[in-house]
Model the fold of this input.
Amino acid sequence: MSFNDIPKIEDADWYIDLAFSRAKKQSSMVKSEVRGPRLEKVKRG
Done:
């Protein structure tokens, strides 16, 4: 990765959007993993 690949300050919004979309994907994956067992427990209860 060269220095030119680092986003400039005006590109910070794009960079933040990228980070947010990655975090959303990860959190949604975690939520689906957590949700499964919980729903099973609720259905049985």
Q: What stands out?
A: The chain is about 75% helix and 0% strand. Helices lie at 12-44. Residues 3-34 form one domain. The mean pLDDT is 72.
